[in-house]
Specification:
- This protein is an all-beta fold.
- The protein has three domains: about 220 residues, Jelly Rolls (Sandwich); about 110 residues, no CATH class; about 80 residues, no CATH class.
- Strands 1, 2, 3, 5, 11, 12, 13 and 15 form an eight-stranded antiparallel β-sheet that branches. Strands 16, 28, 29, 30, 31, 32, 33 and 34 form an eight-stranded mixed β-sheet that branches. Strands 4, 6, 7, 8, 9, 10 and 14 form a seven-stranded antiparallel β-sheet that branches.
- The longest helix has 9 residues.
């Protein structure tokens, strides 16, 4: 099961937002409180809530009572400042402002935070508590299992560096009587406190211990990064360089989407050997190559031509010449801003020729698209797919007007997608936004 399965609320503070919005339902928060988008120097964008409560009306999914067992998960990354000696519920999701799952104060300006269930405006005994220092950013994940009895387990995890195992950091059991409940409302509430909200997520299922621990340690994976990387693969093309005697090897990278015949590629070959660092590909930056020395005996050389992008071309020839001296220069990077070290490159061929063909465009195939009820989104038109550099987050290509097939799968093909490269991507529908895993071929 994917981590995003049954995810029904997904809020993240991002640049350009004017109001706190649930990305899945488009519900917005409003009320007596004030929400200000702040670019924190350490944690990036966050919503700063002051002066009262803000409420979002959700779709009311997941109604249940004590006659039907039901497990729900609440997760949030936040911090609280200016705490008082009260029992305020800072974050709550449930029926309304009086009933639901919550994270809140435990009656002390310097003590623990508590995690539990509120009925009719009061916490039901006994919520869990987690240690907290005011002003720190914390991630908490809580699962609440409403069983068919009144002994309803609560498990809570908080973000931990170097976690050992996946067991909950705190556990408890509360007695919730027969009261109809639903995921119909989300409330962010403060009085004298300041609440900074970075992320909020709700599932209408209980996460496993391993899933809950993973989200507590990295809630950001629900939006991007390692959880939604797609890996592309493609065939390498090969060229052979012929010469009288001896052997050497080297690599020529063909980068771009042009078609046609390549003209000659020439390398000047000085004496001596040195090492340097070059800017890696995948960006628009450039980096200085400290020095590069090529040693030129005679002989036969072999090399590899790596196809990249949508190119379809036949290299006419690759020639190597062997003057004396030393060389240094600057290598311009492309397609990103990653960096890598060039340890030592030595070519030991004077001249030769090679013929090869570069690989074609990369392809990303999504998994089956479904809505929050599990219905396959077949033949969905107007699909948008954004493909990003998995390391920097830079947009590689914005594809519009796509259509899912009868199985709910979308295929993305573009010259900018490079076979053998790892990407992050997102699928955007007219009614929802989904961040899946996928494999490009």
């Amino acid at each position: 099961m994917a981590l995003t399965d049954n995810l029904v609320v997904q809020v993240k503070a991002e640049s350009g937002q004017s109001v706190i919005t649930d990305a899945l339902s488009s519900a917005t928060f409003s009320g007596a409180g004030t929400a200000t988008l702040v670019n924190d120097g350490t944690y990036g964008y966050l919503w700063r809530i002051t002066g009262g409560a803000l409420t979002a009306t959700l779709s009311g999914m997941g109604n249940w009572t004590d006659t039907t067992a039901k497990t729900t998960t609440l997760a949030a990354r936040f911090r609280v400042s200016n705490r008082g000696s009260n029992y305020n519920r800072f974050i709550q999701v449930g029926n309304d402002a009086s009933n639901g799952l919550f994270f809140g104060n435990a009656g002390s300006a310097t003590g623990n935070l508590r995690e539990g269930v509120a009925i009719a405006g009061s916490a039901v005994s006994t919520p869990t508590t987690l240690a907290y220092t005011s002003g720190d950013v914390i991630t908490i994940v809580m699962t609440f299992n409403e069983t068919t009895t009144t002994s309803d387990p609560i498990k809570s995890w908080k973000g931990t560096t170097g976690r050992s195992g996946t067991a909950a950091d705190a556990t408890g059991t509360c007695s919730v009587s027969s009261t109809a409940r639903a995921i119909a409302s989300a409330v962010l509430s403060v009085t004298t406190e300041t609440l900074d909200l970075l992320n909020l997520a709700v599932w209408n299922r209980g996460l496993s211990d391993a899933e809950a621990a993973s989200v507590a340690d990295d809630i950001g994976q629900l939006w991007a990064g390692s959880a939604i990387d797609a890996t592309a693969s493609g065939a390498l093309q090969q060229a052979t360089l012929s010469a009288p005697t001896g052997t050497a090897s080297g690599t020529v990278v063909i980068d771009g989407s042009a078609t046609g015949i390549l003209s000659a590629i020439a390398l000047s070959v000085p004496e001596a050997t040195a090492t340097g660092t070059t800017g890696a590909s995948h960006g628009s930056a450039s980096a200085a190559l400290g020095s590069l020395s090529l040693v030129p005996p005679t002989g036969t050389a072999t090399g590899t031509v790596i196809g990249d992008g949508n190119a379809s071309a036949s290299p006419a020839a690759i020639s190597l010449t062997a003057p004396m001296g030393s060389a240094s220069g600057t290598v311009g990077a492309s397609h990103g801003n990653a960096s890598a070290a060039l340890v030592t490159l030595s070519l030991i061929p004077p001249s030769g020729s090679a013929i090869g063909t570069s690989a074609g465009a990369g392809t990303i195939v999504t998994p089956v698209l479904k809505n929050n009820t599990g219905t396959v989104l077949a033949n969905e038109t107007g699909v948008i797919v954004n493909v990003y550099n998995a390391t920097t987050g830079a947009l590689i290509v914005h594809k519009t007007g796509l259509t899912s097939n009868a199985s709910g799968v979308v295929t993305v093909v573009d010259a900018a997608i490079i076979a053998g490269t790892t990407y992050a991507y997102e699928v955007i529908l007219s009614s929802a936004r989904r961040l899946p895993l996928g494999l490009a071929a």
